[in-house]
Design goal:
The chain is of the alpha+beta class. It is built from 21 helices and 19 strands. Residues 326-378, 454-506 form the PAC domain.
Length: 726
Amino acid sequence: MNAFLGDFHPYLFIIAVGLTFMASYTALDMFSLIRSSDQNKRLLFIGGTLSMGIGVWVTNFIGLLTTNSTLFANYHIPLTILSIFIGVAFTGMAFFPLFGKEIKMSHLLAGSSLLTIAVFSIHIIGIYSMNVTIKYHFLLFAFSGLLMFAAFFFSFWILFSVRNFPTENQVWLKPVSSIILTAAIAEGHILLKKSTLFITDNNMVNSSAPDSLFFTYLVLFVSVLIMAGLIVSSTLISKQLATSDFNLKESIKEVKDITFALDQSSIVAITNSKGIITFVNDKFSEISKYCRDELIGQDHRILNSGYHSKDFFKDLWKTIGQGNVWHGEICNRAKDGGLYWVDTTIVPFLNSHGKPYQYVAIRTDISDRKRAEGHLKETMKENTDIKFALDQSSIVAFTDSRGKITSVNDKFCEISKYSREEIIGKDHNILNSGYHSRDFFKNLWKTIGEGKVWKGEIRNKAKDGTFYWVDTTIVPFLNEQGKPYQYLAIRNDITERKKTEEVLHRQDKLAAVGQLAAGVAHEIRNPLTSMKGYTEFLQLDEQDPERLEFLNIILDEIERVNTIVEDFMVLAKPKAVELEEKNVVPVIKNVVSLLEFEARKKNVRLMFNCNQEIIQIECDENRLKQVFLNFIKNGIEAMPNGGDLHVKTVIHENNVQISIQDTGVGIPKEKLKKLGEPFFTTKKNGNGLGLMVSFKIIESHNGKVFVESEPNKGTTFNILLPAKTA
């Protein structure tokens, strides 16, 4: 048993170390490409693993060869091939944990341990392939393993923890790591060989020693094999680098194009996870009036206009903080104090844990649009206010060019008593009261048809048959050809004003009659008294019947004139009304009884209906009798061919209604509204003062008179007086 000692060939060992360095560098280069490339990762990993595994095997194989070439006389080639595969496998397992998204200390420890096992495996199997007996020096063996493990760990740490080094120093990481790996492999081989004791048979050693030429060829073959592998690996790396470079250039060009497009159209800003601005484009500076140096390092509160609430921004940050895209409109304040609006999209960029590490905000200036929207809102509000004001004060209707109603407001429906559905689609003939002539409306349509505004007063008829007056302005809306395409009619209710004017007109007439009565009554009454006295005196001595008849006619006419003078005197100087509480039922019965005989002569059936015997009112009995006599006599005279005359009393809450209804000739509408005016009468021989005085007496009793009439159907006088309640 002899310890193995042979001749050492340093030049072969130097070649082995050089080949191992080249293989290590190539392997690390491929592994680096895996981390920075998205393509061919599997091919790069296999290439790097083969290169590193063969580099470890070369040092061990040539290192044993340089020590004693006679040991290779019985070299077992299958075991050598097995050692290569096992070394490559452990090398692959060593580097596999180092390609995750995040490299931890446990990954470095595992990789270093597996690569150390790869070196041990190749060394031990390589020795056993020489068919020799081995004994190990355990302490030296363990020390060599620890030394390799430490060197591998350090090499992996500086290579795969590049964040610990400045960017400008990272170019030296691969060469330094390759040197450390190569030194660790070479030193490990030397220490392992020193810790190994070879026991051989001298006869076996001396029997067949291969010549030096064989070993030279063997070394050259292995060298060529490794060089070919490195060349192939280098070619793949160059191709990958060229592709990556092309892709990088294309990506850079695409990024530049996108950046240019964004700079031309959008406002771009990038912030970190805390909202601090890290980048802005030129358009951001242009619209905000801040230069880039004033914005970088600030947050977006520098642009806060105060328009939005805290909850608005709280919701914004909550959305993007959860990794969701936020979209909305924001009002910002520029450096010069001006406000501007931006349509904003904020996109969060997420890290491996799904947490935002930066935000990209892309904005579009929408200030002009917001100003237009604001102007539109103001215009709409102004239109709404005008419409509201019109609805509150005026009657509004739209018609098309043919006069068909297309829209009405609530006040139109209120005064006309028609619903909106009943009005839309109709023309204004539905409201025609018959008061105005055809020429009136012909002139109206001629005016607005020429595109001119028409103004005037119109009496309309509501759905319930009542009349109302409206002060009307019709405005035509013209198209591009200057032709009306619709009309707007704005009306104001002047019914009360017209009634007041009518009352004033009547009062003017009454005043004129009063002045006439005051000036004439006195002058007429004195001669009438003389004429009546002398006529009665002549009657005393007259025996001729014919002459007596003439004198009676004269007295009747004098009495008639005197009655007219009395009416004049009532108008000129009304007596003070002295009202007393009376039962009006006997008063009416008394008047009806007085006129029953006259009614029978005219073939008129006079009837009185009253459900109550006592109806107390405050009245002047004599003057009230005068009214009843006047109205009932008028009713009898309105039926020259006979008929029915009904006198009725009805209690309505605190009022008594006395109706005097005949079946006579009736009164036309155009005359009905003039009843009660001085000197207006429907009789051939009347003077109109009777009705006027009657109306005035009822007014002095705080009552009202309503007249209803229809030609050939009769007339009803409704007297409404306050009744005394029990």
